[in-house]
Amino acid sequence: MTEPSKLPHHGVPEHQPAAGGIAARARAAAGPQYLNGLNPEQREAVETLDGPVLVLAGAGTGKTRVLTTRIAHILSQGRARPHEILSVTFTNKAAREMKLRLGQMLGQAVEGMPWLGTFHSIGGRILRIHAELVQLKSNFTVLDVDDQVRLLKQLLQAENIDDKRWPARMLAGLIDGWKNRGLAPSQVPSGEAAMFGNGKGGKLYASYQERLKILNAADFGDLLLENIRLFRENPDVLRQYQNRFKFILVDEYQDTNVAQYLWLRLLSQAPSRPGVPLSAIIPGAAGTTVIPGRIEDANPDVQSHIEESGDNEESLRDSGSALSAHPGMTETATPTASSPPKNICCVGDDDQSIYGWRGAEVDNILRFEHDFPGAKVIRLERNYRSTGHILAAASHLIAHNEGRLGKTLRTEDVDGEKVTVTGSWDSEEEARAIGEEIEELQRAGENLNDVAILVRASFQMREFEDRFVTLGLPYRVIGGPRFYERAEIRDALAYLRVINSPADDLAFERIVNVPKRGLGDATVQLLHDHARKRRMPLFEAARAVVETDELKPKARGALRDLILQFDRWRAQREVTAHTELAEIVLDESGYTEMWQKDRSADAAGRLDNLKELVRSMEEFENLQGFLEHISLVMDRDGDASDEAVSLMTLHSAKGLEFDNVFLPGWEEGLFPSQRTLDEQGRAGLEEERRLAHVGLTRARRRAKLYFATNRRIHGTWSTTIPSRFLDELPSANVEITESKGGSGWGGAGGYGPSRFDNVESFGSSYTTPGWQRAQANRNRSQGGRSGQARGGFEESQSSFSGGFSRNKRGPIVIEGELVAKSTGTVSEFSLADRVFHQKFGYGHVVKIDGNKLTIAFEKAGEKKVVDSFVERV
DNA sequence: CATATATTTATTTTT
DNA sequence: TAAATATATG
């Protein structure tokens, strides 16, 4: 592969062989100083460089430290150069953290770790290099959910599917799920695909993918899925990467989904060489089932994919590969032929797997030893974070889960304060109580930066915000809506996207009429019709239509102006810095003005955000580079400067720690979230429990739990009962306290929902939850339709045989043909043809100019129209 | 075509 | 409850 390595080879010794022998041992014992202070397990995790390693790192056991030290170790041992290490994390936050820590450990060498990043950013990066092999151009856009949904809506419309009954959002979710499982359109189980849109789910997925190619776009899932396809279809490309990455490190392995797993598997296989038995590479062939429990019934999807990648590997095998060991590598550095150099190290904690709903497969971590035979499993169980009581509570709670690898966290810290549980009358009182306790902590000299409130669902934050505002307590919301998800940012980006890639219909559509230019639905619809018929981008369609009389003069003028503006901006792009260009665009388009005129409360904030956006562009070399990264790595700007309480969801708290952690809302239905229970049943409950475990283990010194008896769910108040998780805490480490919020709960004996108490005790749940679950599932699988299952079934069958909707659209055309068609075709009309036009009626052709016709209409007079709008009669 | 008003409907977690 | 969407009106 020719990808230039942009890294300065920063003081990484290329010579010294890392002889695995006595010399190395001796040196290690003396110890490079970065090894100092590691406990024996950590040290083992760092120093076991060869072969697969799974590090089971419980909360607060120094996971990140192990990862970064391991990288430092690899580098300083000369086992690989920075660009030969693939290091993937799940979140940008984690990637940043690792870069930071590595930087501290190694000086500036972090610049030289080009392959340290999230799955998605690395996937995207590889994809851009080989874009043409997956029918994209290297400047493809990454679509966000909004774009996706808009696109799907159009497809649903084209298929004549009622988007009330089959919402685009739902389809987006389905497709995302398929992509998470590594399924291309042809691989989706047909039964599953047929469940959406009267059997059209699969077809919709396929045409969605087609559209993405035409739009030169990829969605999040594609960043991985298309990568997998790239590797499967181009063994030589795969081999380049297999050769390149001498070491692979994976953070939060418990959160990987099937696609990520497959991707890792492909990369972690040895660069193919003759003589490696297939069974050494393909886990399925080995038949060694190491792990107990539910791992046995492994996901069939995974199985089939493993086999596929096996085939792939086999086809690779014959072509000998030049294993280009770099100068510093000795024989011992490269494992023997019988054991491929799968130097993959995955770090994770099955007890912190909380992204199952996003397709994460806990099985991936549970099955590691099976997938990577000969793997070394190292457990990190010494917790350096929490005090005794907190750790005991967390451990005891998580012990209620089955299907875990099992770790016992221990600490040498003092017992500290007990975990407290506080009940309050309603959620307002809960917020009041927490507010007071925080003020108390503040008075006692606690730093507010060491205080966090972790909620299950983001709607809970509101009450705290309200309360803190009235108290004047500084707080900061972490992980709210992402910066680039704000409307104004996306509008601005849309302008830049259209400049950068004129075929970006979604971006164009977003801003044609923002600010208002008199180009409403009707105009856009017209452009769509033309674009579809002519198989051209909307922008081009607009260019054509402006030349005609299709539009009313007003709209036509506005559209012409817009096109001219874009032409001008595109020209300016060559001579103007991208930041300056952005300012010009925002100004000349009237976008800034639109917000300046807006007198609503948040208009000023939006203008600030726009400034912030322009400022953030400075970090990038050019517009292209900026656009490539924006959707992947832009997240909220934490002004961590001021002292403030942190307010966030449990999910976004993973990986963080605080002295004082407040955990409100421990109520049935909210904390074991009813929805998760309904959808995932037992597995869902266990995931919720892991979430609780994550919450507790964020705390260093104080963990405080709360529940309220009354909570407003959506508009209406409802009575709730304390979470079952509270019952699962060990009483020895917990203290029940009175709410300090004043009135309410203790006094009123009228806390009367005792009739619910017996309904919901653990396990005895067939009456309410079970029934609800069944119902919810039924509704869900039928796409939320209200009728009985049978009715829906018949309906979908009938429309199958009818083949009704195909006519509307004509045959699906493959991209190659589209391109051919859209460039310079000769009109199929001849002079004097009699034609019909929807709006202008009958007439005859008097002039032909490419696809533009001049027609003398009988009623409307002479008009210029586009040929796609008239038909010969 | 744009705006104001009525109605509906959905409410987790995120790369 | 509030946000998002449909409908009526200018």
Automatic annotation (TrEMBL):
Domain of life: Bacteria
Alphabetical keyword list: ATP-binding, DNA-binding, Helicase, Hydrolase, Isomerase, Nucleotide-binding
Reaction catalysed by this enzyme: ATP + H2O = ADP + phosphate + H(+); Couples ATP hydrolysis with the unwinding of duplex DNA by translocating in the 3'-5' direction
Stretches the record annotates as Disordered: 1-20, 303-343, 767-804
Comp. bias (Low complexity): 332-341, 794-804
Binding positions for ATP per the UniProt entry: A57, G58, A59, G60, T61, G62, K63, T64
Residues in UvrD-like helicase ATP-binding domain copies: 36-387
GO molecular function, one term: DNA binding
Any one biological process term the GO annotation gives: recombinational repair
Enzyme nomenclature, EC number: 5.6.2.4
Span of domain UvrD-like helicase C-terminal: 388-655
CC annotations in GO: cytosol; DNA helicase complex
Function per UniProt: Has both ATPase and helicase activities. Unwinds DNA duplexes with 3' to 5' polarity with respect to the bound strand and initiates unwinding most effectively when a single-stranded region is present. Involved in the post-incision events of nucleotide excision repair and methyl-directed mismatch repair.
Family: Belongs to the helicase family. UvrD subfamily.
Record-given protein name: DNA 3'-5' helicase
